[in-house]
Amino acid sequence: MASRILIVKLSSLGDVLHTLPAAQVLRRRFPEAHIAWAVEQLHAPLLADQPWLDERIVWQRTARGGFRHFIAQLRSQPWDIAIDFQGLFRSGLVTRLSGARRRIGAAQAREFAPLFYTERVTLPSLDVHAVEKSYELVKPLGAVDTRLPLVRPYLADQPPHASQDGRELFPLFPSQGDRAAVDRWCAEHGYDPTREQLVILNPDCRREANRWPIARFADVARRLLDQPGVRVAL
């Protein structure tokens, strides 16, 4: 029985989000386990106050001696299992330095990361959604989920069935402070959630290759605003 499990997904924002479904499967498979997440400081707030997660181990990447302190935190407690959801040299090294006796990662991981694993999971294909790749890494632990088909309608460019709720895949629990901040923002902008729907667009990211053209965001915004009772924010 796994009593202490370490999730290694250091960055980035989208990658951390795409790991949430697999993390939920782990929690359901091991309801009594202590589950921790190794993550960079920049993305750690996303995981704050999540009731399904027992601990965040945060890498203060820009701090002097930050990596040494981060590894010291990891090694200050024993781990039964560490799972590298990132699949790069850095995350593989963190998985190894954690001291976990079982270290799981993808056989197709890059930058020699598989050298750090005790178990290498061969992914059926690399041409699948990141959520599905993450699921493959928890299967050796007997963690499976029937809700995975929620992802596939999006991949097939089809709308999901009305009964399917994406929140089952990506559960996040905002804090009271988060909710208060959103309430203030809505009040300042005259948004009434009882009468309107709000769609938020985020047209920027750090990497040029990941950016959707601005003109397409503008087209989406125009189409949304043609719908009654819909407002758009950037």
Question: What do you see in this structure?
Answer:
It is a single chain. This protein is α/β, with parallel strands linked by helices. It is 32% helix and 16% strand. α1 links the parallel β1 and β2. α1 packs parallel to α4.
Any descriptors?
32% helix, 234 residues, globular, alpha/beta, six-stranded parallel beta sheet, two-stranded parallel sheet, 7 helices
Strand content: 15-25%
Shape: globular
Q: Helices and strands: which structural class?
A: alpha/beta
What is the percent of helical residues?
Answer: 25-40%
Q: Could you give a short account of the major beta sheet?
A: 6 strands, parallel
Strand adjacency order, main sheet: 3-2-1-4-5-6
Q: Count the strands?
A: 8
Quick structural gist:
The protein is an alpha/beta fold and 234 residues long. The protein is built from seven helices and eight strands, in the order βαββαβαββαααβαβ. Helices cover 32% and strands 16% of the residues.
Please specify the SSE layout and strand pairing.
Elements: E1 4-8, H1 13-29, E2 34-40, E3 55-59, H2 66-75, E4 81-84, H3 89-97, E5 102-106, E6 119-121, H4 130-138, H5 152-155, H6 176-188, E7 197-200, H7 214-225, E8 230-233
Parallel strand pairs: 1-2, 1-4, 2-3, 4-5, 5-6, 7-8
Helix pairs in contact: 1-4
